[in-house]
What does this fold into?
Amino acid sequence: MVDLIKKAAAALKESKFNVVFTGAGVSVESGIPPFRGATGLWSKYDPKVLDLDYFHDYPDDAWFYIREIFYDFFGKARPNEAHRVIARMEQEGLLKCVITQNIDNLHQEAGSKVVYEFHGNSQILVCPKCGNKIPVGKVDLKTIPPRCNHDGTVLKPDFIFFGEGIPEAAYLNSFEAARNAEVFMIIGTTGEVMPASIVPQEAKRRGALIIEINPEKSLYTNDITDIYLPGKAGEVMTEIEKYLF
Ligand code: NAD
It folds into this structure.
């Protein structure tokens, strides 16, 4: 494993365009479970609470669960070592951007500046009618559902529900970064969520070296990954950090 860590660090140092692509696994060491698997969120909650039609038809019920999952629970999470090393890579000129499927804002909290959020962000609420955006910290979630202070419409978290499209800027920026990447790191994702799952394939197609960190093999591992580092994101990233700076 040490040889592979050194090889990954050397590739990152030599490359002029590094990109990191993250999924739920990068936040597991912060205490946020992934969606899938035995301990995943969908083993406890019904995914319908994130269905757009259900949200509009039953906002009280949907918001009861959304508050519990994304604000009472996710809200307490703090960045872990993986988020920290990724932010440091950007600060030291070794990373162009993070593309994340996560909605937990932990990359930004760790200090990352260029973050393309493929699925939006839970820390902003948006009015589906007038487009008004409000930081969740300014909304009293003791009373649900929260409403827009302009027109009274039920506010929605500014992340993607089932049935919604990808935010255009994040989509375009992510694919452009993938096309330009010399080294593309995939951290903590199964590769099962479309269309985000295509982004690493685009990087590979354009010739990027693919480094992957995940304790379990993903759909990418035997398909496009060049250097597979089995392990937890925080632990592996702190090992890579030793040879990076
Ligand atoms: P997923 O739930 O499908 O898969 C998580 C992956 O993380 C698995 O491959 C697993 O082996 C790996 N993993 C588990 N622990 C890890 C660790 N310590 N270090 C590295 N990897 C680890 O997640 P996904 O592929 O990202 O897809 C689910 C979608 O749900 C995402 O697109 C995301 O939008 C959303 N989601 C977000 C959060 C969050 O914001 N933190 C949490 C859950 C789900």
Notes: The radius of gyration is 18 Å. Strands lie at 18-22, 97-100, 115-117, 120-126, 133-135, 156-159, 183-187, 209-213, 227-229.
